[in-house]
Amino acid sequence: MRAGRVFAYGAAAGLVADLLLGDPRRGHPVAGFGRAAGAVERVLWRDHRGWGAAHAVVCAGGAAAVGALATRAVRTSPVASIALTAVATWAVVGGTTLGREARGIGAALRAGEVEAARELLPRLCGRDPQGLDADGIARGVVESVAENTSDAVVGALVWGAVGGVPGLLAFRAVNTLDAMVGHKSPRYRRFGWASARLDDVAGWPGARLTGALAVLAGGRPREAARAWRADAGRHPSPNAGVVEASFAGALGVRLGGTLAYGGRVEHRPVLNAGGRPVRVEDVERAARLSRRVSWLAWGVCVGGRALWARRRRMTGAGR
Fold first, then answer.
1. What is the C-alpha separation between 93 and 155, in angstroms, rounded?
2. Which phi and psi angles does 283 have, rounded to 5°?
3. CA atoms within 13 A on the CB side of 179
4. Under 8 Å CB-to-CB from 113, ≥6 apart: which residues?
5. Could you tell me whether strands 276-277 and 264-271 are parallel, antiparallel, or unpaired per DSSP bridges?
């Protein structure tokens, strides 16, 4: 069986498994990788960019190597290859848990339980919830759903289409390393620089695909495209700006502004300034848009891989 079909069937099965099962509460493979990366950090940590780059290479390269060895071990069995791709996809995507956490916060807000929503918010994003009212919490949820649609689903599918199981595992490794050491704390300002930059590079194609699909699937294509074009470049993140701006336009809401994050206050640019403020009901709308974008991304990645393989076959036949 050709690799494109293995990816198509395996990734679909993995997405269905994520839909049915979500993330395990204990023993998650990503948590296991995090513990291993932490052990490597304890050996390699120096307040130096070079040592941080070594950490990123060892951890992300190790994840890709595990994927390559596993792929090689099952290469003669189409069924085993599909199963491996399905397990890897389920392990690295997190769309169902993303939607579940967002909806849980939305339910608390609809019930008027703002304090409960504040307690739940750190499970979805890193900002300080204590100074946020109900609409501020809802805005944080919508922004996190937009960004994590790219990080937790679409980006993984893109790299899975490009590199199979090694691509899936390497992308999730890079994304996890950025969450662990990529922030600008005194300990990681230099050591985490390479992981943060690598995450920017790895996330670039997935963020653009997420933005494009939000434009197509959100119901307001002109507004979403306008917000992307006008506002994405003003965001401090080269990737989060794309997805947050396109989601803002697609949902007809205004995102960005002042927030407290990691013990500091940030004044981020407003995205889609012509939209209305986020309301509690927009949490559900964002979760639904995220699900549509995720499945459309699977279709685009499968189709793109099939077209690439066909072009290679035609090029080879023409020689």
1. 9
2. -60, -50
3. 17
4. none
5. unpaired
> End-to-end alpha-carbon separation of the chain, Å?
24
Strand order in the sheet with 276-277: 264-271, 253-261, 276-277
Tokens of 190: 């230099």
User: Residue 298: what residue type?
Assistant: W
Instruction: Give how far Cα 288 sits from Cα of 108, 218, 285, 311, Å.
Output: 18, 9, 5, 35
How far is Cα 165 from Cα 160, in angstroms, rounded to an integer? 6
Who's near 308: CB < 8 A, 6+ residues apart? Answer: none
Sign of CA dihedral 64, 70, 74, 75: positive
Q: How far is CA 198 from the centre of its chain?
A: 14
Q: What is the pTM of this model?
A: 0.94
**Strand, coil or helix: 213:** helix
How many Å apart are CA 96 and CA 86, to the nearest integer?
Answer: 15
What is the rounded (10 degree) CA torsion for 237, 234, 281, 294? -50
d(CA 317, CA 319): 6
Element (H, E) at 287: helix 282-317
The alpha carbons of the chain give a radius of gyration, in whole angstroms, of 20
**pLDDT tens, residue by residue, 308-318:** 888 888 887 65
pLDDT tens by residue, 77-105: 999 999 999 999 999 999 999 999 999 99
Where do the H-state alpha helices sit in 45-154?
49-73, 78-92, 95-110, 114-120, 134-149
β-strand partners of 127: 261
- What is the CB neighbour count within 10 angstroms for residue 267? 9
